[in-house]
């Protein structure tokens, strides 16, 4: 029994984080901080699980609807602000 379930929101949020952080040139973009931003965002958004490619396509179309897209951007921006104020590393750790 092969179970293949995917949260479509993951790829969508990862792509959106890459776009949003371009507007924040002063924040840390190390792997730890980017992963924290993605994780924080996903923990504050509803999961959108699918089990087929067709389901994935329909879900992505739904996500791109203006109201959902705007809500997701707001969450990602909040995540950037939260993580940039409270990174899980010190400046010294980042330099090493």
Automatic annotation (TrEMBL):
It comes from the Bacteria. This is Competence protein ComFB. It comes from Pectinatus cerevisiiphilus.
